[in-house]
Amino acid sequence: MSDDARRPTLARRARLRWDAARAQHVVVVPEGVLALTAEGAEVAALLDGRRSVAAVIDALAEAHPEAPREVIGDDVRDFVGRLVARGYVTLEAP
Amino acid sequence: MIDPPVALLAELTYRCPLRCAYCSNPTDWRDYGDELDTAAWARVLREAAELGALHVHFSGGEPLLRDDLESLVRAARDAGLYTNLITSAWRVTRERLAALADAGLDHVQVSVQDSDAAHADALAGTSTHAHKLEAAREVKALGMALSVNAVLHRRNLARVGEIIALAESVGAERLELANTQWHGSALAHRDALMPDRETLARAQAVALAERARLRGTMDVIWVIPDWYEDAPRPCMDGWGRRFVTVIPTGVALPCPGAHGLPGMVFDSVRERALGDIWREGADFQRYRGTGWMSPTCAGCERRDVDFGGCRCQAFALTGDAARTDPACPKSPDHHLVRDLRRERPATAMEPEGPLYRIDIRRGPRAS
Lengths: 94, 367
What we know:
The complex is a heterodimer. By secondary structure, chain A is α+β, with helices and mostly antiparallel strands. Chain A contains three helices and five strands; from the N terminus they run E-E-E-E-H-H-H-E. The longest helix of chain A has 17 residues, at about 70-85. In chain B, about 50% of the residues are buried. Chain B is an alpha/beta fold. In chain B, about 35% of the residues lie in helices and about 15% in strands. The chains are: A alpha+beta, B alpha/beta. The interface of A and B includes residues 17, 20, 26 and 87 of A.
């Protein structure tokens, strides 16, 4: 099974929000805050448990026709992998 | 430009059915009975969120003793805050936990006093241990994040491995192993609670090995016992820098232990908006930044790392809250800590007699 077929979901204990006081998107977790870049926030908003990793990459490639798809793919897999390692995203079977 | 706080510590009440000797609340906690009402807390929560806080930690005392806790959780969520409940889980029912989850509670931290009911209930002065474990499992079943908190001291340090196993068995995602900090009742019981170096070193080795084993499953946080370290604790990550505390009566403080310092103004959220107090309140300005520092701290390369340590500890040990924390080896007063440390006898396997939270009544607080 390709990892790209799995469906990433932001964990219940991790909340994506706009932090107006610091003008940045953040993921708030128990006792911590992860600051996101604008690109990171765009990816995080797509981790809804319905889209597969491949579908997330498709959606971003469509929104950013100027960016090479391979670069988007690498960035998404790296970003999701880091959130999974910290327990803020779970990967569900397709 | 003063950065906004990241979190509000909302101490809803100092009432608590447990009598833990290590309690850091003020020893005259009974005199803080004039608590903010629901509407006032709801306003404080909104003001904290507008100011830039992202988390609220509902604490105490035992916050479950507030009948309006569900309303306050809902108000916090409506304001956009990430909500955390720090509790003993005392007599909490499945129905109440479900109502809190429904109100939007994100994270629950359940305290345990020891690894087994006999030791834990003796320390808490009430029979709670078995129920805590049931409540912790219920928190998980309801989909909330779960932490277990354990305060460590002379009477339970030898069982730190068993405490870790307990937290693992209830499915906690985080375990805070907090070595006792010497405020309130804990300070009064320092001789009975402070461990010897050898017991502490063994416990630390166990905790660090377990932390490595559990990486990815449960975050094990070891809060340093600052009297035995090479650097002071970076208390509150700096005075008036990241955290704002509001105590039961409505006084806003840079640190929950700051009550006891001399010369405090004690601005209350009953009279001033939280943002005003944070930015301009005299108590928040007093030890903010580096301008107040003694030459020892001002000239130190770690001044922006540990912020001079703990003001309350500096006051408790030297009588001057602006001195370098004596826990720091560079402090001219470090001998005070060294001497007290050296006097520690080896830890007995079974401690001598009961030991409870100090309970002094001085008379109601006006603010």
